[in-house]
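Hi C.,

You asked whether I'd gotten around to modeling the 287-residue construct. I have! Everything is below, sequence then structure, no commentary in between.
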Amino acid sequence: MSWWEAVVLGLVQGLTEFLPISSSAHVRVVGPLLPSGGDPGAAFTAIIQIGTEAAVLLYFRKDIARIIGAWFAALGGRNGTDRASRLGQGSPDARMGWWVILGSVPIVVLGLLFQDAIENSLRNLYITAAVLAIFALVLGFADKWGRKERELTTLNAKDAILLGLAQAMALIPGVSRSGGTISMGLILGLTREAAARYSFLLAIPAVLGSGFFQLFSNTEELTAAGGPGPLNTVIAALVAFAVGYVVIVWFLRLISHHSYWPFVWYRLGLSALIVALLGAGVIPALA
């Protein structure tokens, strides 16, 4: 992989991570189309996502600091020493901290249980194309029929678990982490902006955990012959960070006035394109 190919993949990652169109699917498809060819790999994909997640930390830094402060305050008994108070009763920010923790459990458990499949068989592009189309319809249904009236302050433990399970589906390239959680949020009645904001917050532990796990446990994939290499991985992550920040600002403004349907049609088109590329032998289903 050359440095400019790393820039391209970082650009793709930054443009698609926060949109409900699956960044991992895009990186998976674009990789074989570059001169070096081949699947960049699960480790490379997970590590460059640290870059886009750094953009989330920067954009939501005040919200994150407030949530963490309120969570520790409640846990320490500042709002009361009874169980309900320690779990955030009377403090929406403390409750949000608990909901992010609770919602992160499914992706951690399923990610560890199915790690081998996630890094190998589930990266089959026929599967990617199928889930792109299926979850496009799920997103379209959710956007059309969801009540879109609840704010984040109304979330409860059941909501957090369901949203966490939806996020865990993104372990399959093509589902989309934001697409899964946004769809579930809309089904649960959240507004478009509330669903997107919770999606961003919920992704922080999962993406950073996955990225650093791959960084420390799977570096041989990066340094192997024909692999992306550490320097190119860093380049891609930095590009993803810069582009991702701009996309966050744009996306939150967009959904405050428009529906998710353009992304539904995009996903369906991308699914059809992947099938066409596979059928023509331009890209292989598996690296």
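If it helps when you're writing up: The chain has a mean pLDDT of 91.

Thanks,
B.
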